[in-house]
## 1
Amino acid sequence: MMVFYSKYKWLRLLMGVFFLLAGTLTVIVNFTRPEAIGETLSISLAIVFFLIGGISLIATLINEKRAVYTPAILTSSLLIALGVVLCIKRDLITSIIVYFAAVFAISIAIVLIIRGILLTRYKKQTAAFVTCFIIGGILLAAGIYALIQPGQVLSMMYVVAGVFLIVYGITEIVFGIKMLK
């Protein structure tokens, strides 16, 4: 992919600008029209998946002309298919994202707590096991709260997703500008 970016330097700038716009749009819509945020995020993510999947597919087809199959073709196709699904089922994000994040947070919390228990055997690892217990406890509480109050957590998750897209967009723009020099 980096070879592809070095040949088409403007592409990285274009993707960075899009991510920046998608993140800004997500944050603005969350505060101005919260009822439309799920649809906005679904469309934004669908476009992101189309862009990443399409660019990756084109890069693979250009750079690996003799390859019959590469994992990049499968990944690109799955991203494009996920984009299509998000365009068709725009409420999919709002119906599963909180539960997915809650279960993910609880799973990580359990792993961290188990790791903390295992680290208690080593006397010099006091800071590590205390950190595991604290972060595990916070994630466990956040996951349980998200399962109990999914509506309140959803708005916060959209803001976090928007900020993530903004930061990623700025990063891509900075690297794109460096590549143009």
## 2
Amino acid sequence: MKATAKSAQMPLGIHLFALALILSSIAVLGTIILSIIDLIALHYDILTIVITIAFGTLFSVGLIIFLMRTRKLLLNKEENAVGCAKLIFVLGFIMAFFGRGFPFPISQTGLNIDWRPIGFSLIWLVYFSMSKAVKTTFPTNNRKLRRVDWIFFVCLAALLVFSLPLGLILGQTAVIHTPLPEH
């Protein structure tokens, strides 16, 4: 049985996006590890470190699962693949405005918008919305998000939104222990 060109070809952009999802997962892990090292090096109190580890791990693991799930859906040409990819873009916008995705203590001057997720999200959103190859591979009349997709999205978005006030609270209440100089 001969496969048709429509069913056999996966657009190069989809493969690049799948690679970007893997690299994003690695970056998420790296960011949380470096932030924890910073907290320890800056001598923050144990409660702040534990909250950051717990919250950061919860968000990071959830995001990595959602990223890898979306990658699998795209490569298997599932009906909810494009919708999940678009939810990732929305998470990128939320991440840009609500912090790093975990409650790293934030000072009042540390509330800067991170433009990288916005750029990443805009580029891929335009690709997934306007590409003829994507429309051919994933027909628009057959795109449905599943309940599990919405649950992942709402939970991750809630963690991001909650991370900003928690980070501000930790930034105001964290105790920084200054080591005594050795004589």
## 3
Amino acid sequence: MKNLKTRLVLFVLLFLAFQSIANAHFPDQSYIYLQIHENSITGYFEVTTKDLNKVFGTDLKAGLTEEDLAPHLAKIQEYVFQKASFTSQGEGDYKIKFMETGFLRVNVFGDFVQLKFILEGVNKIQEKIDVKYEAFVKDIPGHTCLLVIEQNKKTGVANNESIHSLEFSSNNTKQELLTSEG
């Protein structure tokens, strides 16, 4: 009986440890999440309020609302729009069209702001997409950005939140994304 209890406790601890690693978000990192559909690509840029404050001199705090973000949103979107791009050899430059915003509350180090978007100009999912990302990685020393394919109809990936496909840094801002993998 004691052996069973010990195993059960170890299982629960391992499960909780795995969950926390799988859902990990870290300070000094921003994220790009993509959902690759049959003939379209949507996604969102995710960045901490701390990093927004560093780059824009704002004073966004944990628990912020859309009303708190509203005075700064156009400037933030323009910044990301200028420093991020998606292109393919088959279809050329895709245009980032921002949609609504969202928030991810992370008690340990503040909130993430989610800038949701759709890529305009996608008619057929290309095998390779060139991604450029200089936002925050060029302006905050040591900052990195992970690109995660959250969903990919082509490969059957669904609900991926932890395995990244690309990692951007100040000296690695242009990379090729293979849409037939992950």
## 4
Amino acid sequence: MIVCAAAALGAGVPCVPELIAQAQAAWSKRDAALTVDRLSEALVLARKQAPLRIRAALAADQIHGLGVYVPAKGGVLKGRRLQLYVEIENYGAEQIDDHARVRLELSGAFSVEEAGGKKVLGNKTLGEQVYETRAPVGIAYLGADLDLGEDFAPGIYHVEVKVKDLVTSKAAVQDVVFVVR
């Protein structure tokens, strides 16, 4: 049984269950192209309802693009430079004519491990990413390159990474551990 919102049905817009049913029918006929098309359409609609999610957040030695990075081995930084790689999914986009604008903000709450717990060091806005796209993939990455300077003595640090979708106001948080030697 397929259940769709009345507004979607009235507008002739297929809903997620209907698209999945169409994908299953296409797959039973071995029509892989149509199957992928319908599943992609269903995913775009489902992402609008899903919470913003951080898929990966880590200290990296190199960042080249979405999913293309070299993790810092054991979270150990090379010198006092933190390259933070954050991969997210399910963000929103503002429709502008034939394309969409994505607006994401990255911030972090820094702390250091000390005997007896963590010592809070403070919060920092790490940047904003705004771009326009015609491909509604729903997955993006943010990179932040931070020179920690001498303020970060050798030790184990945490940055509670927060990504805020400035279009939908959704937010997601994840802890990243890194080591300064």
